[in-house]
Specification:
Mean pLDDT: 76
Distance between the termini: 55 Å
Shape: elongated
Low-confidence stretches: 317-326
Largest sheet: none
Structural class: mainly alpha
Radius of gyration: 21 Å
Number of helices: 14
Number of strands: 0
Order of helices and strands: HHHHHHHHHHHHHH
Strand content: under 5%
């Protein structure tokens, strides 16, 4: 399977990029894409014809574009030719199957960005560009139910696709935080999911993460989840977010840890303490707010295992959350 995937990925990525700055050769792209569909339908790539080989190839094509793009700011323009192929594929389906197609394709693209060799800033830019394409694709669906299904499939599949595309362990937490935030914001802004609804999507993403942790890709679910939750906290405290957003991030991680512990996915007596202590260890030393962040996160850890009295005693009457806001 891999040689065929590599061949199509290379061909699509090469034809999408134009070395002289002119528009891509859309005719050649369409020809390659048509041939791809033919061999997928024949079962030549996978024993069971279906969405997997298509979505993997589209996602891997995006990974190639991420790694070779001169300027991440042009990500939406670079993605446009690939999106035309995806939209053309969707015309073969009714609304509900098209929503599943879109969801899986965007899940694969999100996952491919996680595995591509790029900077954190470039990764965030490409996530935003893919999210914008996903919102545009949703407008072609007739009913809110199908748009919601597209979002659900994208969320559910993105975690698995990230590892399918080779996401490094140290990028997974920041990637997950960024993708989850973008998808929830997009759903709310599109007016087919309300705020309560966005929180439900976050919980669903978290549920899929915990299920993934118990699968064959992860040797130690407890260490994996603690590491991911710690990375999410670090991402929330080092991106210049206002204090209330940091508090919201911490609250979300609290809830995630509690749910994971209820399901015995963490298998530890002090999951919150361990997670926030790990987050403190991972805070960049050059962060100008490092001292305040350390105090705040340690306070959260102590509060979790000993209540506010222990937190107050440790900090000698200080108030770590206030320090974090200064």
């Amino acid at each position: 399977m891999e040689p065929i995937v590599t061949a199509f990925t290379t061909a699509l990525a090469t034809l999408t990029r134009s070395g002289d700055g002119t528009d891509p050769n859309h005719g050649a792209l369409a020809t390659v894409d048509q041939f791809l569909h033919e061999i997928v339908d024949q079962g030549a790539i996978d024993h069971e014809p279906g969405l997997y080989p298509l979505c993997r190839i589209y996602g891997q094509t995006v990974a190639g574009l991420v790694e070779t793009a001169d300027d991440p700011a042009s990500a939406e323009d670079v993605l446009a030719p690939v999106m035309r192929l995806v939209e053309q594929t969707a015309t073969r389906y009714e609304d509900s199957p098209a929503a599943v197609l879109f969801g899986n394709v965007f899940g694969s693209m999100f996952g491919a960005v996680a595995g591509a060799a790029s900077t954190a800033d470039a990764m965030a830019t490409w996530v935003e560009a893919i999210d914008a394409s996903a919102r545009e694709a949703a407008t072609s669906l007739q009913h809110d139910e199908e748009r919601t299904e597209q979002l659900h499939v994208a969320i559910v599949s993105a975690v698995g696709w990230a590892f399918d595309h080779g996401c490094p362990d140290d990028r997974f937490g920041p990637w997950l935080e960024g993708v989850g935030e973008r998808l929830c914001q997009s759903a709310t802004q599109a007016a087919f999911v309300d705020e309560h609804g966005a929180d439900a999507w976050r919980r669903r993403l978290d549920s899929e993460l915990r299920s993934f942790a118990m699968g064959c890709y992860v040797d130690d679910p407890a260490a994996f989840l603690k590491g991911v939750y710690a990375d999410i906290v670090v991402a929330g405290t080092t991106r210049g977010h206002p204090a209330d957003e940091i508090d919201a991030c911490v609250a979300a991680v609290y809830e995630s840890i509690e749910r994971a512990n209820e399901d015995d996915h963490l298998r530890t007596d002090e999951p919150v303490m361990g997670t926030f202590s790990l987050a403190v260890d991972r805070l960049p030393t050059g962060n100008p707010r490092a001292a305040a962040d350390h105090s705040y996160l340690l306070g959260q850890a102590f509060r979790a295992v000993g209540g506010e009295d222990l937190e107050t005693a440790v900090f000698d009457g200080g108030c770590p959350p206030d320090e974090a806001q200064e």
